[in-house]
Amino acid sequence: MRAAMAAHRRSTRFGVASAIVLVAAGLLSAFSSLLVGVPAYPTAASGAAVVSAVVTVWVVGRVAYAAFSGGSTPRLELFRPLPIPRRTLARGLLVTGLFDPALVVMAIAFGALVALGAHGGVGPALVGALGAILTVLLSSVLVSVVEALMPPASQQRRAMGTIVVAVVISLVAVVGTLLPSVAAALIAGTVPALGLILGILPTGWAADAVRATTTGDLLGAVLPLAGSVLLLAALTLVWPAVLSRRLDGDLAATSRRRATRRRLLPGTPVGGVVSKELRMWARDPLRLTFLVIAAIIGLGVCIVPELSQGTGFLLPFAGILSVVIAGAGGCNLYGSDGLALRLTLMVPGAARADIRGRQGAFLLLVGPYALIATIVLTTLSAQGWAWPWVLALLPAIVGGATGLLPIASLVAVLPLDANGGPAPAWPVKVYAAMVLTLLTAAPTAAVLIAGAITGSTATQWAAVPVGVASGLLAAGLLGRAATIRLRRRGVAIVEQLSAA
User: Does the pTM exceed 0.70?
Assistant: First the structure.
């Protein structure tokens, strides 16, 4: 079954190319992770903490990917009509899960446990190998359980599941990006709470066993491995029940009464689009995922250096970074909406209201959050020099992102794939949108840099009105350009979406 699915993915030229890129990137990351266990650490505890962090990133990332993408097996509902006992089917799916190519890559990465134990001799190395095997098996079973627990149908339930997955993906991205800083903090022992958490998590039990074996603590080596075996057995026993609940769940749709809501937005075409877009941002899993990721990564990238190295240099810019990421996540709104664009084109004069409404909804979503985060974190960071920088760059970036949102969505429109997910070229568009959003603040940044070079505080504060004007111009002019493009190219875009 897995071989047939893999062959289907390789049936296109893009499928072969993407498979080669994924395998190469996976192997490179795996061997890089393996090398984490090679250096000689000051203490056995610090080495175990660093390796535990690497193993945790791999396991959580793999489980989050399975939950977000639906895994690499067919939908579980397809097995419902088969005359196979649930326990037999559960055992078969667990065995099938062991043939996941990702587990091979993870096994290479978990070689860091063997390398870490090799510093203490053959015994700790063997314990590391056993811990790596148990962690790989635990990851495989956990992936199957998480896939079955994720809601299959309901849009609202899917959105709620997406929030959880987005949080996990964001945390993995933050930890993975800042892993060198985290490792340095773990080695120096400046964040003892983080080391304690990594040791408590099941992903750190194998490294704890290696550490205990190295120091001659036999009981401390046996207990983590025994805990891994018991957890693996518990998940294996629970798995048939989880699968049965997924396959035999209640499929009947439930109706809910909607409470009458007081209108807060004006009853105008623009107000109607703003209201619709606010609901779409909250209900569309793809948009919601990017909002959550933007908030967590924006905060995480700027807060972790403060926690790990005691430097608050990046704290004031957390809100700005979140806006850049959120704006890039909305760079393909019309492609995500699909043929609903026809409704807009059928109403004379609706193009301008649609563009301005989308801009207004995005501004309401990110503007207050970014402003509050910027003021609070700049105050807490005690970085007095940062006030003119953040107060100038924030309106410029918010205005740039608000302006680029509709025009980027109308350029190189990418329809969703057959599963309702983003197109393969979507990440390229996201990265391009992030770069363009940053470039919209170039005039403001130039004034700030000039003030910093000349040492003129007045010049730096003069960048604040420049940033406000830059943001207003970007939002207004780019929105107007998007309106013109929608009027001229709307029918062609619908034809492109229809042919997808």
Answer: no
What's the whole-number mean pLDDT along residues 350-355? Answer: 94
pLDDT at 156: 47
- Cα separation, 3 vs 10, in Å, equals 11
Cα separation, 93 vs 244, whole angstroms: 13
Contacts of 40 (CB under 8 A, 6+ apart): 119
Q: Could you tell me if residue 262 is inside a domain?
A: no
Question: Is 239 within 8 Å of 141 (Cβ atoms)?
Answer: yes
Sign of CA dihedral 12, 289, 258, 275: negative
Tell whether 321 and 239 lie within a shared domain.
Answer: no
Between CA 43 and CA 119 the distance in angstroms is 11
Contact 94, 144 (CB under 8 A): yes
Paired tokens of 334: 């019309």
**283 and 188 share a domain?**
no
CA end-to-end distance (rounded Å), the chain: 27
CA-based nearest residue to 480, from 329, 359, 377, 301: 359
The residues, ordered by sequence, that sit 6+ positions from 147 with a Cβ below 8 Å of its Cβ are 66, 67, 70, 71, 73, 76
Residue of 419 and 288 predicted with greater confidence: 288
One-letter identity of residue 138: L
Listed in order, strand segments (DSSP E) in 207-307 are: none
Calpha distance 265→272 (Å, rounded): 8
Give the model's pLDDT for residue 250.
Answer: 43
19 and 113 both lie in a single domain: yes
| Residue linked to tokens 């599963």 | 419
How many whole angstroms separate alpha carbon 378 and alpha carbon 227? Answer: 44
pLDDT digits (tens, 9 = 90+) for 381-429: 888 899 999 999 999 999 999 999 999 999 988 887 766 667 777 788 8
Instruction: Tell me what pLDDT residue 253 has.
Output: 39
Query: For residues 242 and 323, which has the higher predicted lDDT (pLDDT)?
Result: 323
CA 87 – CA 75 distance, rounded (Å): 18
Is 234 found in the same domain as 178?
yes
Token duo for residue 91 = 């055992």
The residue type at 443:
P
Task: For residue 16, give every residue at least 6 positions away whose Cβ sits within 8 Å of its Cβ, in sequence order, or none.
Answer: 10
In the chain, the number of structural domains is 2
Inter-residue contact 357 to 270 (CB < 8 Å):
yes
pLDDT tens sequence across 29-49: 888 889 888 888 888 888 888
With respect to residue 258, please indicate whether it lies within any of the assigned structural domains. Answer: no
472 lies in some domain? yes
* Shared domain check, 313 and 212: no
Quote the domain boundaries for residue 448.
269-499
Residue 261 resides in a domain: no
Do 437 and 390 fall within a single domain? yes
Same-domain check for residues 74 and 221: yes
